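Task: sequence design from structure.
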């Protein structure tokens, strides 16, 4: 058995487990057509199913209607009948017996166990399952081996709808959660923890010039005038050395007197 075949079957089983909750033991409902085909290819159904589905927990089963159908075929159906007679009988309560196809349809439509697989070469029976039991895996014999069919379009569309419902629900839930968090002031903590939002800072006080009031204007004028006077006083100031020199000059030479004389 190739690895890709294992991967394929695991993926399929996982699909049915995840979306439709199928569970072990798997009950494989087998009709005369499947048994007949297995005989042609010398397939040991029970052994190959265990290897293929990777579990020992497999119950091969059939109905009395299916066995009766192989009996009615005479010699051609003899081998298939012997195979079916080894299996567990699912009670169908059809007296007199009906066709295996109708019998299986009625059993599968009533079933709620999530354990059944259908094994049949009948396309119409498998299609019935695809339409009415999209949660149920179907299998047939092709290429000298038992093969699970890919999920039908019907099955996949149901899964897609389920996914949508789940996401819608979670959206609703998340909205309720948000509202509740807001009420409890938990959303602020969350914001602090996850992303820092830019806080609105005020204007930098250092970059602001104070508005000039009349008082402040007067104050600056006073300061300026004070500086001016200071400057003036400085200008009038003379060094002691110079003062002394002037005094000496006044003593010896009076300019005023000089002009008066003239
Ligand atoms: Zn029946």
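Answer:
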């Amino acid at each position: 058995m190739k690895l890709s075949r294992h991967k394929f079957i695991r993926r399929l089983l996982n699909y049915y487990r995840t979306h439709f909750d199928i569970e072990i033991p798997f009950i494989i409902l087998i009709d005369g057509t499947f048994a007949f085909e297995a005989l042609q290819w010398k397939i040991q159904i029970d052994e190959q199913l265990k290897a293929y589905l990777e579990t020992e927990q497999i119950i091969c089963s059939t109905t009395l209607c299916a066995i009766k159908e192989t009996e009615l075929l005479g010699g051609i159906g003899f081998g298939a009948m012997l195979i079916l007679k080894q299996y567990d009988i699912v009670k169908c309560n059809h007296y007199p017996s009906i066709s295996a196809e109708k019998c299986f349809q009625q059993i599968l439509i009533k079933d709620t166990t999530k354990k059944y697989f259908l094994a049949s070469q009948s396309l119409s029976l498998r299609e019935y399952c695809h339409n009415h039991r999209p949660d149920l895996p179907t299998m047939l014999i092709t290429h000298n081996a038992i093969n699970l069919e890919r999920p039908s379009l019907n099955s996949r569309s149901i899964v897609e709808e389920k996914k949508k419902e789940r996401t819608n629900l979670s959206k609703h839930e998340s909205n309720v959660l948000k509202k509740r968090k807001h009420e409890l002031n938990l959303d602020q903590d969350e914001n602090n923890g996850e992303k820092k939002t830019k806080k609105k800072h005020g204007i930098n006080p250092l970059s602001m010039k104070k508005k000039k009031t009349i008082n402040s204007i007067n104050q600056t004028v006073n300061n300026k005038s004070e500086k001016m006077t200071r400057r003036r006083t400085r200008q009038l100031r003379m060094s002691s050395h110079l003062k002394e020199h002037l005094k000496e000059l006044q003593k010896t030479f009076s300019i005023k007197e000089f002009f008066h004389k003239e």
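Residues 3-156 form a domain with the Rossmann fold fold (CATH 3.40.50.1010).
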